[in-house]
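Weekly puzzle thread! Below is a chain. First person to post its structure in token form gets bragging rights.
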Amino acid sequence: MSYIQGFVAAVPEANKEAYRKYAADAFPLFREFGVLRMVESWEDDVQDGTVTDLRRAVKAEPGEKIVFSWLEYASKEAADTASQKMMEDPRMEQFGGEMPFDGKRMIFGGFETVSDVGAADGTGYVSGMVAAAPSTGKESYRDFAREMATIFQEYGATRLLDAWGVDVPKGEVTDFQRAVQAKDGEAIAFGWIEWPSKEASDTGWGKMMSDERMQNTDMPFDGKRMIFGGFKPIVDLS
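Winning reply:
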């Protein structure tokens, strides 16, 4: 089963190119260690929420943009092996200097894929989300994700991936749990929808909002605490 390492960070808007280069330069090593795909996507449409939102999740400051990113692996074992190699390989030291963002406010975790529908070819836009779901509701979440994937594909989405938190550490400053106000007995879900373009995303979402199947579906998580946004990929390597 494939495995995802997911990240959300706040990056100064002025550092966009520096961040893109920092990430892209790391990929050749990551690929050697076992990363199958690396995506870094830059804020395009991130709204302030009433209860939670992506900005509060990483304590974003004025002038900062949200980055939603992930690494894909063949399995958790492959990810664990890669992480060990990253810590031991001296070539990684070149990335250990000053980073173009505040790493202390980045939130991250490891997620087991529960649904992966479609293909990533030609991705031009990403709808990313994080939610808190009952720890006992993994199968319900998987079934819901697959049902939604069918509808989203009808309206132009090319790939939909949903993953379940299995290694989501708590941080000193920020973390996924605080980002969605997770309660005892809840797990973190991380996922995204890939579209050919922003225009395709806007059109697809618009049509889906009038689809009665979307109105009559009970979500297996608290939608009021879900955090989400629209992003444009700036690094997409495999």
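Puzzle host: Confirmed. Bonus trivia for everyone else. The beta strands are 3-12, 37-45, 64-73, 107-118, 125-134, 159-167, 186-195, 227-237.
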